[in-house]
Specification:
- By secondary structure, the protein is an alpha+beta fold.
- It has one domain.
- Helices cover 29% and strands 12% of the residues.
- It contains two helices and three strands.
- A three-stranded mixed β-sheet has the order 1-2-3, with no helix packed on it.
């Protein structure tokens, strides 16, 4: 996405466009991209999904569950915080 923005559309990252990814993979931190990303609590998410699945298997009549978990924004060179 960053190369497409930079080369195909002639946009400057982050001056013209900010690009943000998810999961904070190791490659996101490396030059030349230094991708801004959202770090997610993957282990907590997996534990919660397994628990909910086991509960649903034990009692298929349970109502749907909505679960939110906090993520952490890791700002790097691919995004700029907008001025107020």
């Amino acid at each position: 996405a960053m190369d497409a923005a930079r080369f195909d559309r002639l946009l400057r990252v982050p001056q013209d466009i900010s690009i943000v990814g998810f999961d904070d993979v190791a490659a996101a931190e490396r030059p030349p991209y230094r991708l801004t990303t959202v770090r997610q609590p993957v282990e907590d998410m997996a534990r919660t999904v397994v628990r909910l699945l086991l509960e649903r298997i034990a009692d298929p009549g349970l109502p749907p569950v909505v679960t939110t978990m906090p993520g952490t924004l890791i700002v790097r060179a691919s995004a700029r915080i907008a001025a107020d």
